[in-house]
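Input (structure):
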C-alpha cells in the first residue's frame, strides 16, 4: 500500500505542476500577443511589424493550438478509459494505457516549454527591431 500511495502522490504532483506550467506558458503567450499589438498600433497609428514580431505571433498561435490539442487529447483519453473501466476492470491494461497517456502528455508539456522558450527569444529580437521604428 505504501508504494501505491507514493505513486499516487507523484502522479498528483505531476498533474499539479503540469497544469501550473501550462497556465504560466499560456499567460506568457497572451502577454506577448498583447505586447505585439501595442507595438504594432503604438500611439494610435499602425506600424508595420518586423518579421520577428510576425514570427513570434505565429508561434504564439501555434503554441495555443498545441495547448488545445494537448488538453483535448488528454480529456478524450481519460473519458474513453472511464467508460472502459465501467465495462471491464482489467487493472494491468488500465495501468499500461494510463502510462502511455501520461508519457504522451509529458511529451506535449516538453514541446510547449520548448515552443515558449523559442517564442521568447524571437519576441525579444522582434521587440528590439520594432523599437527601431520609433526612433
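Output (sequence):
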Amino acid at each position: 500500500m505504501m508504494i501505491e500511495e507514493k505513486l499516487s502522490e507523484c502522479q498528483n504532483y505531476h498533474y499539479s505542476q503540469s497544469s501550473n506550467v501550462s497556465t504560466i506558458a499560456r499567460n506568457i503567450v497572451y502577454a506577448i500577443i498583447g505586447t505585439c499589438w501595442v507595438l504594432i498600433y503604438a500611439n494610435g497609428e499602425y506600424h508595420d511589424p518586423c518579421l520577428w514580431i510576425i514570427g513570434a505571433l505565429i508561434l504564439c498561435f501555434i503554441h495555443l493550438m498545441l495547448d488545445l490539442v494537448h488538453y483535448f487529447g488528454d480529456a478524450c483519453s481519460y473519458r474513453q478509459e472511464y467508460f472502459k473501466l465501467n465495462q471491464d476492470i482489467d487493472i494491468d491494461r488500465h495501468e499500461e494505457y494510463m502510462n502511455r497517456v501520461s508519457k504522451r502528455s509529458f511529451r506535449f508539456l516538453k514541446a510547449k516549454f520548448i515552443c515558449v522558450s523559442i517564442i521568447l527569444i524571437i519576441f525579444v529580437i522582434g521587440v528590439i527591431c520594432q523599437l527601431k521604428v520609433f526612433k
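Notes: The helical segments are 2-40, 51-87, 91-131. The radius of gyration is 20 Å.
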